[in-house]
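Sample intake — Aldo/keto reductase
Collected from: Corallococcus llansteffanensis
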Amino acid sequence: MAGVIYRRLGGLEVSVFALGAANFGGIGSSRKLVGRGETEAEAHALLDRAVALGISLIDTAGTYADGASESFIGSWLASRGPAMRDRVLLSSKVGIRGGLGRKHVFEEVDRTLARLRVDTLDLYLSHVPDPATPWDEVLATFQALVKLGKVRQFGLSNVTANDLWSSAASGSPGFGWVQNRFNLLERDDEHNGVLEACVKLGLQYTPYSPLAGGLLSGKYSLSGSIPEDTRIGQRRDLYAKAWSPANALRVEQLKTEAAAHSLSPAGLATWWLLHCPFVTSVLVGARSPEQLEQLVTQALNLPVNGELWRTLSSPGE
């Protein structure tokens, strides 16, 4: 397998893949689905394989499975010895419940650090914008966390272009990067000003949901209704928009190109995202260590291919 590539994110060197831990103990931040994700043992096995593959960045949030995701990572770190802490960077998020007010953020970061069993969080993001808290106040709060040694770098997630311009109005040093949903089927940030703002403001970009919740795995036909007994069905609030006839054609094209290059559709979709010029690190999730290894291996082993990348970028042309 080709070796994992590393890039700079803020002042840190990160792998071009980050292990997304949204399904450790539950499914994302949904309280209704706590207990429906990976068990602690399964999470530990995924973390072990991620490190073995050269992945150095682990991404979670305080609301994932009501804190269980962070707790699973913390127990894994504790069980693997102090040397493991030096091998990985930990990223978490705050604000999806309780907002981004200073008091709440200070309380939440301490809860996160306790669950992760660490003194410092390498990366911290606002999970969603908080209409009740101006961005200059949020920025001041995160800067205070850095001064206290609780956080090293900070960024923004699930934001619009207006959020980016507002957050930059207070001057530098500001937020360092953006983590939004972006994949072959969900490319809004190309057209809504987010990527343009990132370029002009010098912000890096770490997309999540590279497989559109599984739609790009090739296992769905995207015809008829969304199947209830799947993760797509459980989170239709996030992915129903992408379940469309137009995207069905795009998935079929992806499957055809993947077969021609002896790859899985998931591997090729991840390869495409990895080679987007604005991407620093891609958040990947998997149900098993084997799935994680296949995804990473395939995305890394296919060489740069400008024609294939452009074909996937402009389906039907």
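Post-analysis note: The chain has 13 helices and ten strands.
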